[in-house]
Design brief:
About 35% of the residues lie in helices and about 20% in strands. By secondary structure, it is of the alpha/beta class. It has a single domain, classed as Flavodoxin domain (Rossmann fold, 3-Layer(aba) Sandwich), CATH 3.40.50. Strands 2-1-3-6-7 form a 5-stranded parallel β-sheet, with helices on both faces.
């Protein structure tokens, strides 16, 4: 059974990203036996990283580094570690991930990573040797899909974090653009197929 963790960085439930992530989950479930946990980050108590470096300096042989902060990330770190694959969904705010998604990504970095040697000595490298996969779903209210290259630092931020910290390869992503003036129907099918693709790996 494949374990999938869906992480939603939207501030609004039932809207674009929440709906598209649900479509990806539906697609994954259509492919067979899977356990899927969906986390809406706005429902979690997640403090900002203190930049204290305790996790960075922890024993590199431990499966997860220690964190001085005790909040809902204690449970989320376990879900992240146990997952075989991930679905990340976030609106593009000011060209990047939402603040709650950024906080989550900062908090997972050095708990799940250790200092490595590539491309520069000290950069994060995954603590886990288990290969994983991820898909990314982002949306923009105003910027249409064909202008994605000018308004999507969100995908690259998530992609680099999951590679360096979670040993996860992004096998697909989508950008739902210009949603203020169009329906989601054209994007729902793509999200569904991304979920199915996630189960094929």
């Amino acid at each position: 059974m494949k374990k999938i963790l869906a992480v939603v960085g939207s501030y609004r439930k039932g809207k674009t990203i929440d709906t598209l992530v649900d479509k990806a989950i539906e697609g994954a479930k259509s492919m067979g036996d899977t356990q899927i946990d969906k986390i809406n980050l706005i429902d979690q108590s997640i403090q900002y990283c203190k930049n204290c470096m305790v996790c960075l300096q922890d024993d590199p042989d431990k499966p997860l580094a220690d964190c001085v902060i005790s909040d809902d990330m204690d449970t989320l770190h376990q879900l992240v570690d146990q997952a075989d694959a991930y679905i990340f969904g976030t609106p593009v705010n000011m060209g990047a991930v939402t603040a709650v998604m950024k906080t989550f990504l900062e908090r997972i970095c050095w708990i799940h990573a250790k200092p490595g040697r590539y491309p520069i000595k000290g950069c994060p490298t995954p603590r886990s040797g288990r290969k994983k996969q991820a898909i990314i779903i982002v949306s923009s209210g105003a910027v249409p899909t064909y202008l994605r290259m000018f308004c999507d630092d969100a995908t690259s931020c998530i992609k680099s974090t999951v590679k360096c910290s979670l040993n996860a390869s992004v096998i697909g992503s989508m950008y739902a653009g210009g949603i203020h003036t169009r329906e989601l129907d054209g994007f729902s099918g793509k999200a569904y197929e991304l979920g199915r693709k996630l189960m094929r790996y």
